[in-house]
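Hi W., the flavin mononucleotide complex you wanted:
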Amino acid sequence: MSESSLFSLDQPPTIRNAAEHERGSSGGTAPAARSVRLGGVTIFPPLFQAPMAGYTNYAFRRLLRELGGVGLLCTEMVSARGFLEIDARKQSYPERLWGVRDEPRPLAVQIWDNEPGKLGEVAARIVEEFRPSSLDINFGCPAEEITHRVSCGAFLLQFPDKVGELTAEVVRRAAPVPVTAKIRLGWTDSAITAPETAAVLEQAGAAAVFVHARTAQQKYRGTADWDRMAEIKARLRRIPLIGNGDIRTWEEAAAALRRFPVDGVMIGRAAISRPWLFAQASAALAGRPVPAEPSPEEQRELLLDLCRSLTEQFDAHRAVILMRKYVCRFCLGRPGAKLLRTHVSAASDMKTLIRAVDAFYSAADKTE
Ligand SMILES: Cc1cc2nc3c(=O)[nH]c(=O)nc-3n(C[C@H](O)[C@H](O)[C@H](O)COP(=O)(O)O)c2cc1C
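Structure:
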């Protein structure tokens, strides 16, 4: 998928309604955090890391885990067909499953396809060979390679019955591991199917529904419409609803939990820029003092840690390419960020990249 098209650096997301209202009224007091049950698995705090292709690899998950505060981490989306092809051709696993076997739990693996047999087979294999805490099915990806070309991801939101059929098969093959589903509001504004899809998912045995409150047509444009959560929640009898979209700060996470009928919140892009966000949100939810933003020096250290882990997982070239993306997200909003982006984007080796990072954060330290 083309990440750059999904991920505009110039347009930070905003969560509609929630946080401003909360800050203005109650001074931001946090709700009591409740755990979320995914079948037999208890998730606490109710804060979920959104799966993000190209970002939520093993190295990044390790960083998040060290910083703390995430209830459930999740891999990038793993293609069921890709899994089977790699298995047949090379007797190995997709790169996106790297680290999963030995990583601490709870951890979810996300899979996608539109063929119940293949999706079910891969679900069974992953459960057997990787033992994740839960499996998530992707019904939310709006990228054309996934929707138009192979009729998967958010394309399937036009067909709630098909979503139910796929989910029922995965539930059957993955049992007793809980199966969740990640959806969007619908295919377009005039085809909002999330309430009906949520009911179908529950009926099919899903253990939770994650909803990114945009349509597929919106991709990442506009704002997430959290007001839609109420009609989705109304269709669920037993299973939890997790809201997702545009949460940028711990205040917004706490506000979303308080203002909307969701059992948990899922955070994506903001966690790439500020992976300490989960630790802040979880402290807020527990009524503990919220940790301050890390100093420039601490942020530099986090980036270097990430760099070390990426180098363990990927070859030097891939590690540099990935680091460029993380650095560009980390420095967002800071003076000099534009120049740093220019420098890291041109860096072809890790040494040059780290020199640029060092220069940026040491200048930032002096100005704080
Ligand atoms: C670069 C990128 C990659 C993504 N990859 C996935 C993915 O693999 N699976 C998925 O369900 N959603 C994926 N998403 C969507 C996110 O999980 C999330 O729903 C979306 O970014 C909205 O949440 P946010 O506003 O907190 O970022 C991706 C989003 C981005 C920006």
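The radius of gyration is 20 Å.

W.
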